[in-house]
Amino acid sequence: MHQSREAIKRQVLAAVEEHQSELINLCSELIQFPSENPPGDSGPINRMIHDYLSKNGMEAVWHEAGDKMWNLAAETGSEEGKTLVYCGHTDVVPAGDRTKWDFDPFSGEVKDGWMLGRGASDMKGGLAGILFAAALLNRLGIELPGKLVLAIVPDEETGGDLGVPWLLERGLVKGDGCLIAEPSTPLNPTLGQKGACWFELTVKGAPGHGSLAPLSGVNAITQMVQAIERLQSIWDIDVHIPEEVKPITAITKKYMADTKNYEEVVEHVTVNIGTIQGGTKSNVVPDQCTIEVDCRLPFGITPNDILQYVQQELNDLDLDYDLRPFGFQSIANFTSPEDPICQSVVNTIADVTGEEAYGVMQWASSDARHFRDYDIPVLQYGPAYLPTIHGFNERVKVEDIIRCAKVYALTAIDFLFESASE
């Protein structure tokens, strides 16, 4: 006699509780691999993941997308029914100055209820959770009426060209829904994200002897100061939010007002001058200055709109400049809260936590946009201590890793069984 869906959920939930130490040890081991990107080398950590899945009866297939850039794909379940994709990235941003850490960033140490190390929040806590959930379902012999696919990618932190889009372009990963284990808050998976426009601006001057400045030469750095002042006005661009996304925008603004006090970013273009380089030495008038800029775009505006605005502002200054887009270029995108994968995740979070859950917009960008480009509904949910992401002393609560693993395991059951009954 087949078990009911609820009985299977109870069985799986009990198994997650019983094998918590396996999950935490897995996360710790993942952190111990210094998979910083750049430079990027997914080989060592992927071998560890391959071995873990193999021990749990799952065969991971390697896909080489570039030098030292390997994707892994694995699956469990049935070829019949729908397919659910769980996605995670193995790379982390560089740890930076080790002297500014209170602990070894690659120790994977557990202390006072916290998992410590680079990637703990972004996103080895979530990565451990999806690996553990899939392995557990396979090990328990749960007869899923559909397929659960793992897509483990190597380069999300540098734009993801050799990860999710590479797999999707080649048809190596397909699905009817997707969950990415990116960091989120406990009750609020992200159903959409802002767009992005990264660009490099180079202002050209003319060299001269520093002792004769400002009468000699044209100082590119001081001209860049004028340009940067104009770029700050990007925030003031009047963006008209389309009617169809106003509900999710309003919910997100309330959420951010309640939790972050950052609600204004939802409807504004943010602008960050991330790097600046110029000049050769103090007694030479600099003939060139270059900055890199990161803008995140709400619904209603495109990267091309931003670049045109920047050109207009710079032309008013009569500068000699080059403007070059690079890196992230995307428009804001989202998945409907009514989509089955969104409903499954939100309902499961509520069941696991006993609290109300709802989806919100993400104020940054991620691999989710690539899945939406291929009409695969997607959302993000993962363990995180948000203040430490990409910073020193990154960490995440152990209890959050366990909670998310429960959500991952139960969502797979809920989504695939619900899809089979439609």
TrEMBL record:
PROSITE patterns: ARGE_DAPE_CPG2_2 (PS00759)
Similarity comment: family membership: Belongs to the peptidase M20A family.
EC number annotated for this UniProt entry: 3.5.1.18
Catalysed reactions, semicolon-separated: N-succinyl-(2S,6S)-2,6-diaminopimelate + H2O = (2S,6S)-2,6-diaminopimelate + succinate
Molecular-function GO terms, alphabetical: metal ion binding; succinyl-diaminopimelate desuccinylase activity
Cross-referenced InterPro entries: ArgE/DapE (IPR010182), ArgE/DapE_CS (IPR001261), Bact_exopeptidase_dim_dom (IPR036264), Peptidase_M20 (IPR002933), Peptidase_M20_dimer (IPR011650), Peptidase_M20A (IPR050072)
Name by which UniProt lists this protein: Probable succinyl-diaminopimelate desuccinylase
Signal sequence range: none
UniProt organism field: Scopulibacillus darangshiensis
One example of a Gene Ontology biological process annotation: lysine biosynthetic process via diaminopimelate
SUPFAM superfamilies named among the record's database cross-references: Bacterial exopeptidase dimerisation domain, Zn-dependent exopeptidases
Domain Peptidase M20 dimerisation: 192-321
Pathway: Amino-acid biosynthesis; L-lysine biosynthesis via DAP pathway; LL-2,6-diaminopimelate from (S)-tetrahydrodipicolinate (succinylase route): step 3/3
Gene3D superfamilies in alphabetical order: 3.30.70.360, Zn peptidases
UniProt keywords, alphabetically: Cobalt, Hydrolase, Metal-binding, Zinc
Needed co-factor(s): Co(2+); Zn(2+)
PANTHER family, per the entry: ACETYLORNITHINE DEACETYLASE, ARGE_DAPE-RELATED DEACYLASE
